[in-house]
Amino acid sequence: MSHSSPDILMDAARRDLDAVIKRDKPLTPKERLAIPCQEMPAQDPAVRRGNMQEVALGYSPEQARLESMRCLQCKNAPCVAGCPVGIDIPGFLKAAAEGDFQSAIEVIKRNSLLPAVCGRVCPQEVQCQEHCTVGKALKDVNRAVSIGRVERFVADLERERGAAQAPVIHPETGKKVAVIGSGPASITVAADVRREGHKVVIFEAFHKPGGVMVYGIPEFRLPKRIVQEEIDALTAMGVELHTNFVVGRTRRLKDLMEKDGFDAVFIGTGAGLPKFMGIEGENLVGVFSANEYLTRSNLMRAYDAARADTPIYRSRKVAVLGGGNVAMDAARTAVRLGAAEVYLVYRRTEVEMPARVEEIAHAKEEGVIFHYLENARRICGDDQGCVTSLECVRYELGEPDASGRRRPVEIKGSEFMMEVDTVIVAIGNDSNPLIPRTTDGLKITKWGNIIVDETGKTSLDRVFAGGDIVLGAATVILAMGEGRRAAASINAKLRE
Amino acid sequence: MNKVLAREQLSADVVMMRVEAPLIARERRPGQFIILQLNNEFGERIPLTIADADPVEGSITLIFQTVGLTTHKLADKRVGEFIESVLGPLGQPTHIEKFGTVVCVGGGIGVAPLHPIAKGMKEAGNKLIVIMGARTKELLVLEDQMRNLADELIICTDDGSVGRKCLVTEPLKEVCGRRPKPDLAVAIGPPIMMKFCAEATRPFAVPTVVSLNTIMIDGTGMCGGCRVTVGGHTKFVCVDGPEFDGHQVDFDNMMKRLRAYKPHEDKAHHQCHLESEIELKEKKQL
């Protein structure tokens, strides 16, 4: 993917839209398929390497309409089946195609609470867009209708206009629900439960709410102000927010229910326990979990060295281990913090990479150097205990494994050294053990995930859970879907 | 927001502060710590041990040494001013039971977190021997409190200005050599002291608990910045600790990790001193 200037993209869209509007007959499916895919305007890679501002700039109104016109309005709407929260996608695209952006956002909001966030960070290419008929007809999933980009456009437009309607809150019920954590699952539960008239208190361990959306996902992918506005909307609804409150330590879960009078609890604490490789040298100075590296930069704002008290390691050559979105975030952050070379070491090939296509493309444009079919074997250091190099070994792809991805097989004797001063481990997260450890009777899997039934209920009465603490590290939209389900169960339980 | 209720300068660079934190005061147990942040926008998060707590007043007591940027700024807080964020109590509480004879070793500021543990051990019916060490007399903290608690108190200073002129490891070895030997040692202080305390007790096979204070951000297991090698395995100080078997801790690795941001901190610290000097000069001119 090569970078085109936003002006060129917007001019082309204006011309194309004019041509379509001049017609007096409705577009045929063939004509819809012929409308060019609207590329997302983005900051120039050479410029954005040096700043933390958002990379994707968002569609122009003309682009949003044209992209929406590419939708064939399939009767069976395969895209909707691919959406974890079942948004009426053809419905909102139809409104957007007509330029009725307000109706479009209203359609989305019937199902989704965080469209500005999901429009930015949802992996649409493996959800709604994977099933899109347009993508199938054009034999390329990347040429499917860019549902997420239109979603983002209509959400941003509504927010910028200040047109968002405060939701109707039912009369107070006198019931009280504790929501633990303030990430996407918790935000969803808080809103849905509060709407029913229940009192809702969110407990967040950090000093700022938003969970992974503020500590993990960088500003250049999801601006903090967007998350803050979602939180502001919650507090405007009357949701109470307690930061610096870690349930399990500041107060045990059972005390919240037995002593503090909460009628139900939702646990949405996320996948907060970084995995390490278990290789030699992993505790050397200069080895970080992606969580630590990103939290320093994002939440603690260490990138703003002139103002922030929190330091971040100043690196020259960085190796990021992993191939997911978090690995891309870490690598792209390292670029922005001034590293001369950033390598991404992944043991399979680009095809198997779990990261979004767009993130991989952005990382490449920004100069991240991809090393496929390689894996870290050992981290070496100097006498001060600082990282000096990474020993890697080469792999080849063997037979497909249970996940359907071809299994990487080590090539014997292929070890080689990579000179680096920093290693960032981004191979995923396990579930945070704090609440299970301090809550008797709460059942978890052997990986530490809380076990819930189909209603989101845990092994404890009136205790529900959702998001990454249940799923393992997943996505914002899946967390939101889980939150929706748990909130419905909580509301049903409180009606009894 | 947590209000500073009392502040006392214990020595040139050691400050005792009582801070309003009713929820933490209610839940905290000996051995636990907090994470504090002076400014939610740009402040850093630092772990500090809890020296004492008063659940009735709703306050916790912190005793800290001004070693870096944040502790310097914290020391400048006056009574009635606020600390923006205090999170806790964090970490696993000390395992307290009747072991028999317990020797508690505190070095410098490490005596502060040691005090509630010593108190707990005494209340659990243990015979309590306390060894306290400091560079010099002025740096000795909580001496009276420890004297009231201990069945036997041994004080040592590097310069001999009070008590014996030696390191804490010397009396620790003597105590371990007694018959019967102590059933447990608890050592809290600078990493190098804890390392040598563990080496001192090792030949006597006296189980030795140390309390580690590493670099942390969240304090809830999320970042892994605090990880240490214990018995060849990686452990997180914030959720698995802060107390570990001193005979199993890789102190050399831990000390190197503590210096990860040394160049940055030195610069910030220097800047901080420059700024307070300028402020002082300006105040004088006024």
Written overview of the protein:
The complex is a heterodimer of chains A (496) and B (286). Chain A is α/β, with parallel strands linked by helices. Chain A has three domains: 6-161, Fumarate Reductase Iron-sulfur Protein, Chain B, domain 2, CATH 1.10.1060.10; 176-272 and 431-495, 3-Layer(bba) Sandwich (FAD/NAD(P)-binding domain); 274-429, FAD/NAD(P)-binding domain (3-Layer(bba) Sandwich). Helix content of chain A is 36%, strand content 15%. Chain A has helices spanning 6-22, 29-34, 45-48, 61-69, 78-81, 89-97, 101-109, 115-121, 133-137, 147-161, 184-195, 212-215, 224-236, 253-258, 290-297, 325-336, 357-365, 434-438, 468-471, 476-495; strands spanning 176-180, 199-203, 240-242, 264-267, 273-274, 287-289, 317-321, 341-345, 369-371, 374-381, 387-400, 406-410, 416-419, 422-425, 429-430, 463-465. A five-stranded parallel sheet of chain A has the order 3-2-1-4-16. A five-stranded parallel sheet of chain A has the order 6-14-7-8-9. Chain A starts with 5 loop residues before the first helix and ends with a helix. In chain A, 52% of the residues are buried. Chain B contains nine helices and 17 strands. Chain B has helices at residues 22-27, 69-75, 111-123, 143-149, 169-177, 191-201, 237-240, 251-258, 262-285, and strands at 2-11, 14-20, 33-37, 46-49, 52-54, 59-65, 82-83, 85-90, 101-107, 127-134, 152-157, 164-165, 184-188, 208-211, 227-230, 233-236, 243-245. In chain B, the strands form four sheets. Chain B has a seven-stranded mixed sheet, with helices on both faces. A five-stranded antiparallel sheet of chain B has the order 5-6-2-1-7. In chain B, helix 5 packs parallel to helix 6 and helix 6 runs antiparallel to helix 8. The longest helix of chain B is centred in the C-terminal third of the chain and has 24 residues, at 262-285. The relative contact order of chain B is 0.13. At the A-B interface, strand 5 and helix 15 of A face helix 1, strand 8, strand 15, helix 8 and helix 9 of B.
